Amino acid sequence: MNAAALFVTGFGTGLVAGGTSCATVQLGLLTGAVRGEAGPVRPVAVFLSAKLVTHAALGALLGLAGGAVEPGPRTRAILLIGAAVLLMLFALDLLDFRLARRLLRRAPKGGADGHCAAPSGTHRPIVLGAATLLLPCALTLTAELLAVSSRSPSGGAAVMSGFVLGTAPLFGLIGVTVARTLTLLRGRLAALVAVTLVALAGWTLLSGLRLGGWMPDGGGGATAAASARFVSTDASGTQWVTVWALDEGYRPSALTARAGVHTVLVLRTRNTHGHTRAFTIPSRNRDVVLPVTGETRVDLGAPAPGRLRYVCASGHSPGEITFQ
Fold it and tell me: In this entry, which stretches build a coiled coil (predicted)?
């Protein structure tokens, strides 16, 4: 695929599905970029410009050097937890907690009112826009795979630039809406926005814990019927475990299989375009990007007794296989 075709592919992916996925993951950074700014358009534009430049640069690196520069699942999990903390700080800032205000804003420069002033100029939107590179959504990972497969800096930059530009309309709308909401809902009504950010912080924290494989055991929900249907053994003794990656999640989401035997996980897709195409096994620190339609096999070796958990690459749609 040439650079123009890769750009169109990236743009289409971002426009059709990437905006919602990425905006959910990166909302905290976008909120921080517009918080305290006089007008919403300029900080949103700067935020998106910084995001475009950094993602284009990453695409060029991926095209040149392959996937070695991509952060693994555990690294992304830590970043998601950091994003949850950031969302909580923004919520506390809305409620005028002094500690949060001090952490998010620069020290005062001797102003007459003695209050901390928000960073001036384009500094904060640039930093936060660039930081989106560290919090990729699942569809960003799909675009990154295309950049790797292009095997050229120009192709990699084209697909990542197209993806970011495809998500830009929704990001711009959300950014302007958040900024105007923060301006209008002053005083007590700002608590409504703060509560929303707290809920998003909890959701992001949960995603990070899932992606890192740090969620405590909650008991298996596998049924004998599902296990009998989707787990089989061939004549050579190899155990085959089949999981479907659908737009709405992984099916079945819980299975039981035999431990101590050679096992192959078969991941199937059929016209799947959502975040579940980026499949992650946290305990193995491994990502697998699935085709829109097809079958992908992952050799699991001979798993020991216990649970093998899986999620999409941004920590959503959890599932597990219990080996016993």
Answer: none
